[in-house]
Design a protein that fits this description.
Helix content is about 50%, strand content about 30%. It contains six helices and six strands. This is Nuclear transport factor 2 family protein.
């Protein structure tokens, strides 16, 4: 009987694949599909104000860069900022209308850009994803408001005062 157990154990051990081996087997196309699915789920979680689902799709050290110059949120600070919106049952609603996904050669990192239909009209999101706990998660996300080139001059004039004050405060802070 012992030889049978040994053979069975040997078969089990040799048939198990490490996550590294599974990663190499996954096609780039399959990885891109999973990333698309996870990004859509992330945006859907915000639209449904599902705090846990939203933040479970970000890495533990994830970063969210918002549209305001002051918004460089490390994960815990972003959770604190976002929680009241999620608790009210309405966070934000972003729907991808175009997305490009790129995967590194070693299939451990991916990056993307997307055009979004939002309450702010067209925005652009871009970011980096990495495999964490066998799930593609957002490690870094940047949200920006898309401004038509012909309107840039008006927008710059509109934000001139606020930007000038913020630039001055940053320069002062960086000198210290």
């Amino acid at each position: 009987m012992k030889p049978l157990y040994l053979i069975a154990l040997l078969l089990v051990i040799t048939s198990c694949k490490t996550s590294e081996e599974v990663l190499q087997v996954a096609s780039t196309s399959d990885i891109k599909k999973e990333i698309q699915t996870n990004l859509d789920a992330w945006h859907q979680a915000a639209a449904e104000a599902n705090f846990d689902s939203y933040f479970n799709l970000m890495t533990k050290d994830g970063v969210f860069i918002g549209t305001d110059a002051s918004e460089n949120w490390q994960n815990e600070a972003f959770k604190t900022f976002s929680k009241p919106y999620f608790d009210k049952g309405k966070a934000w609603s972003f729907t991808a209308i175009e997305r490009n996904v790129y995967v590194s050669q070693d299939k451990k990192i991916a990056w993307f850009d997307e055009l979004l239909d939002t309450q702010m009209k067209i925005c652009r999101g871009s970011g980096v994803m990495k495999l964490e706990d066998n799930t593609w998660k957002i490690a870094h996300y940047v949200l920006s408001i898309a401004i038509p080139n012909e309107n840039v001059k008006e927008v710059v004039a509109l934000k001139n005062t606020a930007d000038s004050l913020y630039i001055t405060s940053l320069k002062t802070k960086n000198k210290q």
